[in-house]
Amino acid sequence: MSQGFTLWFTGLSGAGKTTLTEAIVPELRARGVKIEVLDGDEVRTNLSKGLGFSKEDRDTNIRRIGYVARLLSRNGVGVIAAAISPYREIRDEVRASVEAEGVKFVEVFVKASLDTLVARDVKGLYKKAIAGEIKQFTGVSDPYEEPLNPEVLVSSDNETVAQSAATIIAKLEALGLVIPLAARAGGA
User: What letter would DSSP give residue 102?
Assistant: First the structure.
């Protein structure tokens, strides 16, 4: 398919944004979708080096990710952006800029409880943030504004990666952004 789109994963650190991205990319490529991934950590290293974690710097980082996503998706590429993107206003701004190009923006909220995130955190960052050792940590000492109406909500607390990935793929199919497997095979 030559229709681009932006699939925007948002959620706290450790919720499963990157894991889900890694699960669906091969599926999308197998269906003929040209796909590019803009991972928040990689963008911070390569495109947003030098930015801190103030609200202004976080917004700048998300705007940069959104800008690249908009350019790629308007040129027929499926883009997966996987970034915490804690502030609703800037996510909505990015959505508006992508949709202004006539491109579909699909917000995926990867939700997980703080208890689950602490249990998953092999680096112990959440425990340090809760103890006050790390400042400006999203979801602990810095806000995370949950999406109000995401196109997709997955709960990594009680869904397997396969279940969440299937939900996301099904939404892309329903929106006409991905050809269903049955249709590709010449079936129904």
Answer: T
